[in-house]
Write a structure and sequence with these properties.
about 450 residues; alpha+beta; Beta-Lactamase; Alpha-Beta Plaits; 3 domains; 5-stranded antiparallel sheet; about 25% strand; rod-shaped
Length: about 450
């Protein structure tokens, strides 16, 4: 019984399919008869050839919304044969509007005139983007004689390109908004003509606040002149310059670098594309490393590396005459052995602070050995240096009376380098020689004092 019912259903499906094919065939035959009765003129043939050559789909639909004529191109767009298309209605391929909407919106095809973008459903179920231009007309007296001629352009490639472009723009925007660099452009007058929206996150100011002269206003005063020179150099063709400036943010200032690209012409206007990056942490680390390389970690004063740079003229000129004081601790080893190295370190730091308290701002004070210090006094005579030593002894004596640490005892010697150290021809070689001689003399005087103290203690 079930087998008979299944066979009957299949037979009915087959009959329905044959009826549809016959109906399509009859419609096609009627179309061919019409064409035979009214053969296309040479002009019409040219029009049809042009339509096919420019890859436009064409379809004529009657008032029942059924295909009465179609070209090969439109059939190919939808994946049907021309014969299969002759049995279809508009709603068989229209994916945006349903049958009810189509019959309602296009109740009188003779009045139709439109160009729309929509989606068509192919035979395999996939969708394509199309542009449809339709023009209605009457080909007879009755309403059933209304038809619409449609030209269809496949927009799949364009839509795909638009989607890819939109995705690319979204990715680029996401990248720019989350990038560590602010991108901005400068016109020839130095005004900011574009700035990426991540400026608000990085700089604390929105694009509308930084356009025009906003970037320049952020740059701290000491760096503004060099910034203007750098912009001018970028427009002059200097390639890929990277310059550093301090920028004033809302609550503090930080270091940034700006990379200037070579000038380019966009839309007839010369611009420079710049990237701005926060380098504050790196700059602070660099400055910290530079500080540590030139300073003694225990006492915080300059070390031998810095002192040697001074002697070689790398830290600027010294005003003559330059006096030298050499200081050495007396019996620091006994302090370390008797009280411990921590106590010895505290004695060194305390003595350093006492000496610093009697020096001027431009005096150079360096720890050049474990318990040996050297002081340079620019523009000071030997007599002035001796007065400094007396003041140091006075500070130490007063400190020792407090009894906070093991007693501090030092020996010191002074000498003067009277040669002119600020002339161009003396700057590179002479200062080192003459200062070394003065240091040697001060060192001898310090050791002479140390020997006298040792002899006094032995009596």
């Amino acid at each position: 019984m079930k087998h008979d019912e299944l066979s009957r259903e299949r037979l009915l499906e087959r009959i329905a399919k044959l009826e549809a094919e016959n109906e399509a065939l009859a419609a096609r035959c009627a179309s061919l008869e019409t064409q035979a009765a009214h053969p296309a003129s040479p002009y019409e043939k040219i029009i049809l050839k042009l339509i096919n050559d420019i890859k436009l789909g064409m379809v004529v639909i009657d008032q029942s919304h059924r295909v009465v004529e179609v070209n090969q191109r439109f059939a190919e767009m939808l994946g049907y044969s021309v014969g299969e298309m002759m049995s279809l209605h508009t709603w068989d391929w229209e994916a945006v509007s349903n049958r009810e909407d189509i019959e309602k919106d296009y109740a009188d095809l003779s009045k139709v005139n439109f160009t729309i973008e929509t989606k068509h459903r192919r035979k395999d179920g996939t969708l394509i983007d199309v542009e449809v231009s339709g023009a209605g007309m009457k080909i007879g007296a009755g309403p059933q004689d209304n038809v619409v001629l449609c030209f269809i352009r496949d927009l799949s490639l364009r839509k795909r390109a638009e989607r890819l472009l939109k995705e690319s723009e979204m990715k680029l925007r996401a990248f720019i908004e989350n990038a560590p660099d602010v991108i901005f452009t400068l016109s020839a007058d130095g005004a900011c003509s574009y700035i990426s929206p991540n400026c608000e996150r990085i700089l604390g100011y929105g694009p509308e606040q930084l356009m025009g002269g906003g970037i320049f206003e952020l740059i701290e005063e000491p760096f503004r002149e060099s910034y203007l020179r750098d912009v001018e150099a970028a427009f002059a063709g200097n390639p890929n310059m990277v310059c550093e400036y301090r920028l004033k943010l809302r609550e503090y200032s930080e270091w940034f670098n700006v990379k200037f690209s070579p000038a380019a012409s966009i839309g007839g206007e010369d611009i420079v594309i710049c990237s701005l990056r926060n380098i504050n942490n790196g700059k602070m680390n660099q400055e910290r490393l530079e500080y540590l390389s030139m300073h003694d970690q225990l006492t915080g004063i300059h070390n031998r590396t810095y002192f040697n740079a001074v002697l070689q003229g790398k830290e600027g000129r010294l005003e003559a005459p330059v006096s030298v004081i050499v200081v050495d601790f007396d019996e620091l080893k006994k302090v370390n052995d008797g009280y411990g190295h921590a106590a010895g370190d505290e004695v060194l730091k305390a003595c350093t602070e006492l000496i610093k308290s009697v020096l001027r701002k431009n005096d150079i004070f360096a720890r050049v050995g474990g318990d040996e210090f050297t002081i340079l006094l620019p523009g000071a005579t030997e007599e002035s240096a001796e007065l400094v030593i007396k003041r140091i002894y006075g500070k130490i004596e007063a400190f020792n009376l407090l009894g906070r640490l093991p007693p501090i005892s030092i020996s010191a010697g002074a000498a003067v380098c009277a040669e002119p150290l600020d002339t161009d021809e003396m700057r590179l070689s002479a200062p080192l020689f003459y200062l070394e001689e003065a240091i040697k003399k001060a060192d001898e005087r310090m050791y002479s004092q140390k020997r006298e103290k040792a002899l006094a203690r032995s009596r």
